[in-house]
């Protein structure tokens, strides 16, 4: 079982590298959200959201930012790179997208 897990992890890390994206550290995470053109009203770092991809409740402030080879930056799920969800995949916690 553990072997399978490690192998899957290896594949994920490999896929991650192949996409040539690198995680960048954001010093002021709230400012980064406020400046992001994605939001008219940026969420707070303490807000809880539900990720459509990994279906976990995440804290907005735990988000990760990845920079792709072309220079574009993406706000990703805190569970990245295992989860490929990004900020647009986050829903309100009480929103039920299963129905
Ligand atoms: Zn996720």
Can you give a write-up of this model?
The chain is of the alpha+beta class and about 100 residues long. It has one domain (about 20-90). It is about 25% helix and about 20% strand. The chain has two helices and six strands. It has a three-stranded antiparallel beta sheet, with no helix packed on it. A three-stranded antiparallel beta sheet has the order 3-2-6, with no helix packed on it. The mean pLDDT is about 85. The structure holds zinc ion (ZN). Zinc ion binds near residues 51 and 83.
Provide a compact summary of the structure:
With 99 residues, the chain is α+β, with helices and mostly antiparallel strands. It has two helices and six strands.
Task: Look at the helices and sheets and give the structural class.
Answer: alpha+beta
Proportion of residues in β-strands = 15-25%
End-to-end Cα distance: 33 Å
Q: How many domains would you count in the coordinates?
A: 1
Oligomer: single chain
Uncertain spans, ≥5 residues at pLDDT below 50? Answer: none
- What's the average pLDDT? 85
Q: Evaluate the radius of gyration.
A: 15 Å
Shape summary:
globular
The hetero compounds bound to this protein are:
zinc ion
Number of strands: 6
Helix content: 10-25%
Task: Please describe the biggest sheet, giving its number of strands, its sense, and whether it closes into a barrel.
Answer: 3 strands, antiparallel
Tally of helical segments: 2
User: What is the N-to-C succession of helices and strands?
Assistant: HEHEEEEE
- Report strand order across the widest sheet: 1-4-5
